[in-house]
Design brief:
Distance between the termini of chain A: 67 Å
Structural class of chain A: mainly alpha
Helix content of chain B: 55-70%
Largest sheet of chain A: none
Number of helices of chain B: 18
Shape of chain B: elongated
Shape of chain A: flat
Largest interface: A-B, 84 and 115 residues
Number of helices of chain A: 5
Helix content of chain A: over 70%
Radius of gyration of chain A: 19 Å
Order of helices and strands of chain B: HHHHEEHHHHHHHHEHHEHEHEHEEH
Strand content of chain A: under 5%
Oligomer: heterodimer
Chain lengths: ~100, ~475
């Protein structure tokens, strides 16, 4: 009997939780705020779903009830992606060692 | 057009890049590179999605336009936002992820053919459950984050809002969500789906309103976690590896942060969620404190004390963020260092309104990160230090957490500020902190209270140090 592809996805999911667990514990507490902003940015990879939904409209009717939600989600996710990565970058740029400034 | 196998492989690559982005945050040196890897992962995911659809019609133009509009808004916010507003920015961003998840779920529900989930009114059972969970968690994240945002921004009072039967109402709504998902799966009715989303919005609001200001670090971490689980739910629906990996990463990241924050307050996650901390015991503790003598001083006294010290430890808290005193503080420290005084910073994990809040503000004021220490690394140094300069912190320095088993904060790890030879306490008044309990430190022999706005006082000290 063939294995349901769902099981593979579930395996990826569970293993990723473990990876996340170990990776996040190794994050230094002083970088917890950038951690939140960057996780925020990467979770906006949900934009891939939004793009698929938005492009589903036919060329005659670009905006149908389903694709409109896709377009709205694209805007929201894009705000997050650009905002999240850039603000993280801005924060990380500020973390300097003693010798850097002297 | 990219084959399904090839695009799945690329999604895996972007998932790995996201893992490396988080891995980079283990030290400030590697963090910037990590952030670039994260950006690379995102670019790969988006480009692959375009290529795998291969539908380069006019729709694509609109997609790009919307992408750029959102991107421009995001970039504008990222450059304009002051560092003190970071907690509300993060809360705001969480709400967007939540809403995006809801929208994608709605879109998939209305037009399941596009995502290969069956046909409208006949969606595959597994997919329907997955998208329901994604939509529900997304909706909770959205409305919960909005409330958190309003509270942090000060538009809504930070005080806990509680009413009778609140927990029962939450319980009923929580059970309701599962019942509705069950009926949705049986009936495939649109109305069920909409009711599910509305109830979830309501749960998000009810979940966050009873939680007070200083518990915000837990709330933000928790919402961070939720946004991850919502993304993962959608990832299962869309059968997208990048989303599943990211959702799991973000979900566990937020969960770990919530755990760290709860531990730093010695509170269980449940007691935070149920809310209303300290509200009961504020009144009776107020009475006896007026009689106790308090030594208060001015900037001149503080400058004198610090000038004659050989080591100073600075303890910043939320008050520093509110007063935007970090730059003035840095100036003060520079002056002290010129006099060969050793200065270090001690950060309590829950200082401020989000994990790492103080570190970012100090970094903004150009404080080198190797002068900033976490609680466990610096706590032994207080006994050898001459002056502790407490600016805007309160509960996290209260020795009562170590001595009085009756106290609501008993057992919470605190900074051993009282062990210093002398303590300077910058505070606007004697009012108790968030926990609603009096701080013994105010009445200690070696404590000098500096009653003023944190920024004003620090600037005055700087003048007196000349």
């Amino acid at each position: 009997m063939e294995i349901d592809p769902f099981i593979f996805r579930l395996s990826i999911f569970i293993l990723s939780i473990f990876i996340g667990y170990y990776v996040v514990w190794s994050v230094t507490p002083s970088l917890h705020t950038p951690l939140m902003s960057v996780t925020n940015a990467i979770s906006s990879v949900i934009i891939v779903g939004a793009i698929i939904a938005a492009l589903a409209g036919k060329s005659e009717v670009i905006f149908n009830s389903s694709s409109i939600f896709g377009f709205l989600a694209i805007i929201l996710a894009a705000v997050n992606i650009f905002g999240g990565f850039l603000v993280t970058q801005r924060m990380l740029q500020m973390y300097k060692k003693k010798k850097d400034k002297k | 057009m990219l084959s399904a196998n090839l695009s799945a492989t690329f999604y895996l690559v972007s998932g790995i890049l996201f893992i490396l982005a988080l891995r980079g945050l283990s030290s400030p040196d590697t963090s910037r590179q990590g952030n670039y890897l994260g950006i690379a992962g995102m670019v790969i995911a988006i480009v692959v999605t375009f290529l795998s659809i291969g539908n380069f019609s006019t729709s694509l133009v609109f997609v790009l336009i919307f992408l750029l509009i959102g991107g421009a808004v995001g970039a504008f916010i990222a450059f304009k936002i002051p560092m003190t507003a970071m907690p509300e920015l993060v809360a705001g961003f969480h709400s967007l992820v939540g809403l995006a998840a809801v929208f994608v779920a709605i879109s998939a529900f209305l037009n399941p053919e596009v995502f290969n989930l069956g046909s409208s009114g006949n969606i595959k059972l597994a997919s329907l459950i997955e998208m329901s969970i994604g939509a529900a968690v997304g909706a909770i994240t959205f409305s919960g984050s909005i409330i958190a945002f309003l509270k942090l921004r000060g538009i809504m009072s930070g005080a806990p809002i509680t009413f009778i039967g609140q927990h029962y109402l939450n319980l009923i709504l929580g059970i309701g969500v599962f019942v509705i998902i069950f009926y949705l799966c049986k009936s495939q009715l649109d109305t069920m789906f909409w009711i599910l989303i509305i109830i979830s919005f309501l749960i998000g609001v009810l979940l966050i309103i009873p939680i007070g200001g200083a518990d915000m670090p837990v709330v933000i971490s928790m919402l961070n976690s939720y946004s991850g689980w919502a993304a993962a739910g959608i990832g299962f629906t869309l059968e997208n590896t990048a989303l599943i990996i990211t959702g799991a990463l973000v979900g566990s990241s937020g969960a770990i942060l919530s755990y760290i924050m709860c531990k730093a307050m010695n509170r269980s996650f449940f007691s935070v969620i149920l809310g209303g901390f300290g509200a009961e015991n504020t009144s009776q503790k107020f009475d006896d404190k007026k009689e106790k003598p308090v030594k208060s001083g001015n900037a001149e006294d503080a400058a004198f004390l610090m000038k004659n010290a050989s080591s100073v430890i600075i303890v910043p808290g939320y008050g520093m963020a509110v007063a935007q005193a970090q730059h003035a503080l840095r100036e003060m420290v520079d002056k002290l260092k010129k006099n060969d005084i050793k200065v270090t910073y001690a950060i309590h994990p829950v200082a401020g309104r989000m994990p790492g809040h103080m570190n970012v503000l100090l970094a903004e004021a150009n404080v080198p990160y190797d002068e900033v220490f976490e609680l466990e690394d610096i706590n032994n140094d207080f006994a050898n230090a001459d002056v502790a300069f407490v600016i805007g912190a309160n509960d996290v320095t209260n020795p009562v957490a170590k001595t009085d088993p009756q106290s609501p904060i008993f057992g919470m790890p605190v900074l051993d500020v009282e062990k210093c030879k002398s303590v300077l306490f910058v505070k606007r008044s004697l009012s108790p902190g968030y926990a609603g309990i009096d701080n013994e430190l105010f009445y200690k022999e070696n404590t000098l209270m500096l009653f003023a706005d944190a920024k004003k006082m620090t600037e005055d000290i700087v003048k007196n140090l000349e």
